[in-house]
Amino acid sequence: MVKLNGCKKNNNKLYRFNFLQSLVILGLLTLAHSSIAQLKWVNVDHQYQPLPPSVHVFYTADSINGKPNHAYYVSANFKDKNLLFETQATNGKRSTPSQFYRSESQPLLVMNCSFFEFKHNTNVSLIIKDGQQVAYTVSSIPRKGKDTFTYMHPVSGAIGISKKRKADVAWVLSDSTTKYPWAIQAPIKPVLDSLSKTNIPSMLTKAPFKPWKMQSASAGGPVLVQDGKLVISNNEEMKFSGKAIADKHPRTAMGYTSNGQLIYLVVEGRFPKKSEGATLPELANILKDIGCIEALNLDGGGSSAMLINGKPTITPSDKEGERPVPAVMMIKKK
């Protein structure tokens, strides 16, 4: 699922390595911003009826930096009290989005979200359902070679919707020992120590974390847009190694706009000459152009899928079709 940054053998080398990666990311962001044309989106509500007035579906077939592309996004007003923004997680078991659609009383929208591991079919990203943490982000990464007994502890990005219907993208610590996750509004460097589990009390002393009281949420990463600016915090979150953020893949992402719209986005990919996907800098630009003031990358690749009223949007890249996943984001009607 997630490839992690290669860690060097001491702090100086590690941060020099991360600094160089930051320069690569900055260059990619600049290149993507200067070369990607703003995509033209077409309203396709008529293909996915019935829809409430506060929900709209958009589609584009515009190329991304000259490469073929198909993408969809849903815009939903999270102030509409007739809509419920929910998650569902089934740790130890995976289901396809279509199976979630049937088992969850046919939600208006079903979309994959969290990263997970295949061996035990469990989420490795925070999931909050009905105000309760039901899955936790794995934030201890063992180092290799002579540093086998040391660990890096990154803080991953997450998106949540509060009980008062306020959206937030933040960097979040989660652990079964605390009632609420802890969030910070800026990325921080991974902590290096010899503990195999993240020491949350120690982490809380390193930055101004606050309790993150969300009604529903999913972690993922990296964060792509923060405070209206392109911010790909891949180095801090240790999600993808080397230049992997510049690889084109199917993508799933979420964000929100200043006028109260929650955005659910999927980009089709891995179909040469038909739809090749997006890089993370391209994805960040797409979300910013849509109007997102904050946005987050979620699990992509073969997991990317979104159903609207049970109807598919993009074609999943796995030859078997929809990939079973252990968690989804949903929109339900009261």
Structural description of this entry:
This protein is α+β, with helices and mostly antiparallel strands and 334 residues long. It has one domain. The chain contains 5 helices and 25 strands. It has helices spanning 11-35, 97-103, 200-204, 234-237, 280-290, and strands at residues 42-43, 55-60, 71-77, 83-89, 109-112, 116-117, 122-123, 127-129, 132-135, 141-142, 151-153, 156-161, 167-173, 182-184, 191-193, 210-211, 216-219, 223-226, 229-230, 251-257, 261-267, 292-297, 306-308, 311-312, 327-333. It has an 8-stranded antiparallel sheet, covered by helices on one side. Strand 12 (156-161) and strand 13 form a beta hairpin. It is globular and about 55 Å long. Mean pLDDT is 91; it is low at 1-17.
Q: Indicate the mean pLDDT.
A: 91
Structural class: alpha+beta
Number of strands: 25
Distance between the termini: 34 Å
- The rough form would be described as globular
Return the string of H and E elements: HEEEEHEEEEEEEEEEEHEEEEHEEHEEEE
Uncertain regions: pLDDT < 50 for 5+ in a row? 1-17
Number of helices: 5
Strand content: 25-35%
Helix content: 10-25%
Largest sheet descriptor? 8 strands, antiparallel
Into how many domains do the coordinates divide?
A: 1
Task: Output the radius of gyration.
Answer: 19 Å
Order of adjacent strands in the largest pleated sheet: 1-2-3-21-20-22-18-19
